[in-house]
Design brief:
The protein has about 290 residues and is an alpha+beta fold. The protein has 11 helices and 8 strands. The strands form 2 sheets. It has a 6-stranded antiparallel sheet. The protein has a two-stranded antiparallel sheet with strand order 1-2. Strand 7 and strand 8 form a beta hairpin. Helix 3 (about 40-55) crosses helix 5, helix 4 packs across helix 5 (about 70-85) and helix 7 (about 115-130) packs antiparallel against helix 11 (about 265-280). The termini are far apart.
């Protein structure tokens, strides 16, 4: 038997490891080809990290099921990420969590991210889009204080609100901020008699609590002539990378321009801008993969 014939016989009598057959083999070959491509491999690794980040910790099996890939693919990705500190095994050794490299990079980013500058840019963009005054506010006890403002381009401008404290229960931004509080804390903060500013001001604490629950559930607030006659405002929450509520983003203007009965467009604009700013600060909503 010649050397060539002997080689052919050997190949014919033993399975060729590169010839994967069957559904599983084809799937594994396809996964391998995808993750071998640089861009595909990076994207898959980022998906793995996002899954772990969203749930706190995750094992190979649950990650594979979430991504719809074979466990061997996930194991390879996790090994690479672990080697560079992007993920680490939890003490029981069966699951992985986000590693210190991510914490270090996030800390570096947050240290250089000028939140005020980002907030001002967002307010400027929303004011330019809507033509109405846009603010970012924080909560101080029972008061909402506007800390950043962009004036609208509309011909009739509102006065400057920066630095001014307003009763939170009578403003859209204040309601967003109050809605985050536990009910016991909320009732304690608003234990004094609520002042009525207009006929539309909510001064019954039980009615206010019910409205705040609705605001928390739907993700935005509206104040229709509750602080001043003719003044209408819409607001949405802005969160940081920990999920903490840091600001309320609001758009306000006269009722003849901001019709509360036809508010879908302005609500969409405000909630989208607040969500974009939150994502810039590292916030990921539950179930979001950052796509």
């Amino acid at each position: 038997m010649t050397g060539r014939a002997h080689l052919a016989a050997v190949r014919g009598g033993a399975p060729d490891p590169t010839n994967r057959t069957g559904t599983l083999g084809a799937a594994m070959a396809e996964e391998s080809a995808e993750t071998d491509r640089p861009v595909g491999a990076v994207d898959r690794a980022l998906q793995v990290m996002e899954i772990i980040g969203n749930v706190g910790s995750a094992g190979v099996t649950e990650i594979a099921l979430e991504l719809g890939v074979h466990k061997s693919t996930v194991s390879r990705i996790l090994s690479s990420l672990e080697a560079r500190g992007f993920v680490e095994q939890v003490p029981d050794g069966r699951k992985y969590r986000i590693g210190l490299t991510v914490v270090r990079l996030a800390g570096s980013t947050m240290a250089t991210l000028d939140m005020t500058k980002c907030g001002q840019e967002t307010c400027d963009a929303v004011a330019a889009q809507t033509g109405e005054t846009t603010n970012l506010a924080v909560l101080n006890q029972s008061q909402a204080i506007n800390v950043i403002e962009a004036a609208g381009s509309s011909s009739v401008a509102l006065r400057t609100w920066v630095g001014q404290a307003s009763p939170a229960y009578a403003t859209s931004s204040g309601k967003v901020l109050l809605a985050e509080l536990p009910e016991t804390e909320l009732r304690d903060i608003l234990s004094a008699e609520l002042e009525r500013f207009t006929e539309s001001t909510i001064v019954d604490i039980d009615e206010l609590v019910d409205e705040l629950r609705t605001i928390k559930r739907r993700g935005w607030a509206m104040a229709v002539e509750e602080l001043e006659v003719g003044l209408v405002a819409f607001a949405a929450p802005v969160r940081d990378h920990t999920g903490e509520l840091v600001w309320a983003l609001s758009v306000s203007g006269p009722r003849y321009r901001l019709d509360p009965d036809n508010a879908q467009e302005i609500v969409t604009t405000v909630t989208a801008a607040a969500a974009d700013l939150s994502r810039l600060f590292g916030y990921r909503a539950a179930g979001s993969t950052g796509a």
